[in-house]
Amino acid sequence: MNTQTKIDAGELEKLDHWIGGKSVAAAEDYLEITNPMTGAPGLLVASGGKSEVDAAVQAASAAAKGWRKMAAAERGRLMLALANKIRENSELLAEMERADTGKPMAGARAEIEGSAAYFEFYGSLVYLPTGDILDVAPDQHVFTKREPYGIVGVITPWNLPMNQAARAIAPALVAGNVTVAKPSEITSRTTIALAQMATEVGFPDGVINIVLGTGQAVGEAIVSHDRIRKVAFTGSVGVGRAIGRIAAERIIPLTLELGGKSANIVFEDADQDIAAAEAVKGFTLNAGQVCSAGTRLLVQRSIYDAFMKKVVAEAQKVKPGEGLGPIITPAQFKRVQEYFDVADKDGAECLTGGAVATVEGHENGFYIQPTVYGHVDNDMRIAQEEIFGPVLVAIPFDDEEDAIRITNDSDYGLIGTLWTRDVSRALRVADEIEVGQVFVNVWNTMSVQTPFGGHKNSGYGREKGIEAIEHYSHVKSVSIKI
Ligand code: NAD
């Protein structure tokens, strides 16, 4: 891969925009990004604004018709070629992801494999029929077809950078759109690499454009741009709301993938060893910086004490460093620690952790010990607010009805996980909980095929699966008198 983003160079690397199939240097400033493993400056990232978004929209407009009219087979071949290219470069891409986020290599590799899977999955869907024939009247031929919006804006966060860019860009492209994307300014390397690789495998210039910079300067310019007809946003509830206001003025559709405070519900008939291990994975994966993290653990009172012993033992096996990566920024690191004070004041019982961690060789990194609070009341702030760190709150419940009530007593509704051997109960609870996806006896498979999205403050619209293609296209009907 011909990439400008070298790793481990002695001096700070500069990362530039990717517009119209070319690297475009920052007009003025670069943002200095801190390495979360060392606390030291890590990378200089171009700080774009309205003029770079204009240039990207122009490049995208020039490419739009050609991409939309390209034979499905050819579009599919390019998508599959990009998937292969990602896999060929997976180790380098994982190192880039680690350089930006500090995450352990195992997590970075899984994320890169997931990015390839998006292009493979959506590339294999290019032949899907896009419309229906409707029986309206004997003398009419009426059909529907799905059409792209044109230029789709994609705004992504820092926790799974390349994966989330791929999750939106792949279905948008297969639906016939072209894209202008903005990764988080903190973690831009792999999104630029994605666009570079697309150019290398033959995607026409302008089909994937990446503008780097802050949310206020670049993100708002994308959402406000009059040629961008749909925006896919993954990030926080606050920014989702701000984008929603602009989109309401402009009357454009959004996909909003926002935060979560997902429940892991353990019934007394569960396989406790597996449930405990998966519960710990559910809040320590990516150091808890995952929208679907299972950060509320609901445990049936009859097994509460025995089960929590297992959870604490499992949590203590997770070692900060290669087992548990750092928190992404100094501000977020401080915020997670503030929740320890909130928990103390609210009277939660700290069963393990509740403090920062020191990692040998990375003494100034932003590491937190895996932390478990017990006997938490669902009204406490640590049970209601998304902490975005490796912090689990355990809440006892009495019966099925109580578990459903506590699960739904949340502003969020992303995923829910049930641990039980009783299939009837699993189906009843799955029906009643207000979440976008339910897992039973497995925590979050993250499969490409399964539609993903939220209820309530977790957002609306769906990514992944065939459903995502519907969210990146609209239906036109054609009625012909014969
Ligand atoms: P964030 O909302 O601060 O930023 C997300 C993106 O939006 C970044 O690229 C940022 O630069 C941009 N942005 C910021 N302000 C903007 C504005 N005014 N207009 C347009 N764009 C703007 O979120 P974050 O801190 O990067 O990520 C963490 C959040 O993302 C958490 O709440 C997490 O739950 C959520 N998230 C959700 C999902 C999901 O699929 N549901 C996945 C990952 C993360």
Outline, from the CA principal axes?
globular
Number of domain units? 2
Structural class computed from helices and strand pairing: alpha/beta
Report the mean per-residue pLDDT as an integer.
96
Spatially, the strands of the biggest sheet line up as 15-16-17-14-13-19-20
Distance between the termini: 55 Å
How is the CATH topology of the largest domain named? Aldehyde Dehydrogenase, Chain A, domain 1
Classify the beta-strand content into a percent band.
15-25%
- Per CATH, the class of the largest domain reads Alpha Beta
Present as ligands are: nicotinamide-adenine-dinucleotide
Which value, in Å, is the CA radius of gyration? 23 Å
Superfamily at the CATH H level of the largest domain?
A: Aldehyde Dehydrogenase, Chain A, domain 1
Helix content: 40-55%
Instruction: Using the 3D structure, state the CATH architecture of the largest domain.
Output: 3-Layer(aba) Sandwich
Number of helices: 15
Number of strands: 23
The biggest beta sheet is recorded as: 7 strands, mixed
Low-pLDDT windows of residues: 2-9
